[in-house]
Design a protein that fits this description.
heterodimer, A: about 270 residues, alpha+beta, Uridine Diphospho-n-acetylenolpyruvylglucosamine Reductase, domain 3, Enolase-like, domain 1, 5-stranded antiparallel β-sheet, 12 helices, 14 strands, about 35% helix, about 25% strand, globular, B: about 140 residues, Ubiquitin-like (UB roll), DNA polymerase, domain 1, 5-stranded mixed β-sheet, 5 helices, 5 strands
Chain lengths: ~270, ~140
């Protein structure tokens, strides 16, 4: 850590316009915000020397607001601000549940939703919530803004469709109809990385998203379809176990993950009746 | 770079990407803030930035520009929380103690046991089994 620090360069824009111009003119730059993921890599010495841009002072990205029926959460909204937001509590309570279990108060005060999306860990706790809620990632460059559904944002393990001159500026979540449900399974509620994490919405067309069972967060269209058509939950659980292909890693085994995912589906269904 | 450190305005020269933890310990000579895991899991390096507890190992120095930083030294040694930790045996090896106290500062007056347990979830202790720490925080 101490050895490489001198080789690190940091841009510090104070507005979004300034940040976007730097992304276009001085790139490639790696954006940093609350640093709760990035500095872990830095401390371990696994971060290659490169140039960074700090978004922490770009306050216009912190806003949480509602327009028409869309909840718009600025990329720089911290977990603490999400937990405290009356708007999020009312419209997307499963995101509040996820934010509460991400870490202790120290992480809540620094970690941002945009960072969780950009980091793209398969175990990112807000990602199943955003996927189940049909959230859209809003990306901006100097001369354009575009929107991509979260489920199409990732192109593979920790890779995404963000262009080199673009920043994630917000997550937009349409109105969610139906009962929301979230459960994280780890060795400890806070501070532990998920073995498996599920977010789901109980409606005539149920939506179910899982983290930690694939290279990216996934929706389960076959399982959702079966439940929509009125299949018994036992059958939906069997379909789910065929639909996912988790792996063995240091946190868990694929067999455990498949079984627990099916159990979580059962819980979701029983608890949202 | 100018910021407020334990209620005094200071001007410290360090790399903007240097960890706040290292700036506090090396440039500022304040070694009360401890390094535990270096990855935001253990809370030993907890300090307050504008009254909010954060892990100083995960904060680039650049992010405290113009902010107010409070470390364990800022409590002066005779703070009610510090006294309660001594009286209740809330410290053994002592590495987690400054971080525990800094996080506990944000819990407000007379927190319930549940609030203390939830509030300190990001601070790990490997000695005490937590009970003495919870007693100390509730007593202070």
């Amino acid at each position: 850590m101490k050895g490489i620090i001198a080789a690190l360069d940091l841009h510090e824009p104070s507005s979004l316009d300034e940040a976007l111009r730097a992304m276009r003119d001085d790139g490639p730059l790696t954006p940093l915000a609350g640093c709760t993921d990035l500095y872990v890599a830095l401390n371990f010495g696994t971060l290659e020397p490169r140039r960074f841009i700090s978004l922490w002072s770009v306050d216009e990205l912190r806003t949480i607001e509602k327009s028409d029926h869309v909840l718009r959460i600025g990329a720089l909204a911290t977990y603490a601000s999400i937990i405290q937001s009356k708007l999020v509590r009312k419209r997307l309570p499963m995101l509040v549940s996820a934010a509460k279990e991400i870490g202790g108060v120290q992480i809540h005060n620094r970690g941002t939703i945009g960072g969780n999306v950009a980091n793209g860990s398969p175990a990112g706790d807000t990602l199943p919530v955003l996927a189940a809620a049909d959230a859209v990632v809003v990306m901006r460059s100097v001369d354009s803004e575009r929107r991509v559904p979260l489920t199409q944002f990732y192109s593979g393990y920790r890779s995404n469709v963000l262009r080199v001159d673009e920043l994630i500026v917000a997550l937009e979540v349409p109105a969610v109809h139906g009962k929301q449900w979230f459960r994280k399974v780890g060795t400890r509620a806070a501070q532990a990385i998920s073995k498996i994490v599920m977010a789901a919405v109980r409606s005539p067309r149920p939506s179910i998203a899982l983290g930690s069972v694939a290279p990216t967060v996934i929706r389960l269209p076959m399982t959702e379809g079966a439940l929509e058509e009125g299949a018994p939950i036992e059958e939906a659980q069997r379909i789910l176990m065929d639909e996912i292909s988790p792996i063995d890693d240091m946190r868990s085994t694929q067999e455990y993950r498949r079984r627990v995912a099916a159990n979580l589906l059962g819980r979701f269904w029983a608890e949202t009746e | 770079m100018i910021f407020s450190l334990n209620s005094s305005t200071v001007d410290i020269d360090a790399h903007p990407m240097k960890r706040l933890l290292d700036v506090l310990r090396e440039e500022c000579g304040l070694t009360g803030t401890k390094e535990g895991c270096g990855e935001g899991e253990c809370g030993a390096c907890t300090v307050l930035i504008d009254d909010a507890p954060v892990c100083a190992c995960l904060v680039p120095f650049a992010h405290v520009r113009g902010a107010s930083v409070t470390t364990i030294e800022g409590l002066g040694g005779d703070h009610p929380l510090q006294r309660a930790f001594v009286e209740e045996g809330g410290a053994q090896c002592g590495i987690c103690t400054p971080g525990m106290i800094m996080t506990a500062l944000s819990l407000g007056e007379k927190p319930t046991l549940r609030k203390v347990r939830e509030g300190l979830v990001g601070n790990l202790c490997r000695c005490t089994g937590y009970e003495a720490i919870y007693r100390a925080v509730r007593k202070a």
